[in-house]
Amino acid sequence: MRDDDASFVVELEQFQGPLDLLLHLIREQDIDIFDIPIARITQQFLKAIEGVEVLGLDRAGEFLEMASTLLRIKIQMLLPRHADEEGELEDPRAELVRRLLEYEHFRDAARLLESSESDRAHHFGRGYVPPRRGPDRAAAELDVDWSDLWVAVLALMDRHVSPSDHLVATRTVAMEEKVTLILETLARRARIEFGQLVRPYGDRLHGVVTLLAGLELARRHELALRQGEPFGPLWLYRNLKSGTGKTDAGDADR
Q: Which of 20, 67, 94, 100 has the fewest CB atoms within 10 Å, measured from its CB?
């Protein structure tokens, strides 16, 4: 594309997108990006995208969308503008300028990375990993004599202290003893709360063995265990056999 105001040629295929083309038009003509002559740039952009359909539907849509944005800004520049909170007139080009500067920043960064990659490829092959730095060979040699070594060995022996013996006293609670306790208690009473059996001992081990004894008697169908709610009191019931072989309801309710 040749324009009356400029003698540069635009080949649409060489641009990455509409922002790339728009930034090229601005930088080639040394236009102040903060004061874009929107009418002239819009005219040049529209001429540059003539025949844009050759780029395909997706890319052509991007250029046409930018063209509509430029036309909208051009119309807004002709209309009366509102003032912002500080009393300055709003500039319809402000958002476009922000997008152009942001695009230029990332484009330049990408080009710098590409240049660094190309430069590295000239010096190192693909997959090259720089060697790790080895130990410093210039370190001073260790200078010790036998007396120093002997002192170090004695100090090492002093650190080794044999652990003192720890004796664990075992306390045996026979389950048969707890089975007898439960059966004798239920022989006198129809039911008993579990806490009443273990509270006199005040020992966790007695509580565990008593619970195991109760479970064993329940397995033998010699008593019944009942709990009204989770974490509620646990009751042990005498399992009296009636003619039908079921638990006596009268005793269960007491």
A: 94
Which phi and psi angles does 236 have, rounded to 5°? -110, 125
The residue assigned the tokens 């930034």 is 23
pLDDT digits (tens, 9 = 90+) for 30-85: 999 889 999 999 999 998 888 787 777 888 888 899 999 999 999 998 888 777 77
For residues 155 and 102, the model is more confident at: 102
pTM over 0.90: no
Q: Each residue of 133-166: pLDDT tens digit? A: 766 665 566 676 778 777 787 777 766 666 667 6
| Contact indicator for 21, 12 with CB cutoff of 8 Å | yes
The full 3-state SS of the chain, as one line of letters, equals CCECCECCCCCHHHCCCHHHHHHHHHHHCCCCCCCCCHHHHHHHHHHHCCCHHHHCHHHHHHHHHHHHHHHHHHHHHHCCCCECCCCCECCCCHHHHHHHHHHHHHHHHHHHHHHHHHHHHHHCCCCCCCCCCCCCCCCCCCCCCHHHHHHHHHHHHHHCCCCCCCCCCCCCCCHHHHHHHHHHHHHHCCEEEHHHHHCCCCCHHHHHHHHHHHHHHHHCCCEEEEECCCCCCEEEEECCECCCCCECHHHHHC
Q: Are strands 234-238 and 223-227 parallel, antiparallel or unpaired?
A: antiparallel
Phi-psi region of 56 (alpha: psi -120 to 50; beta: other; left: phi over 0): left
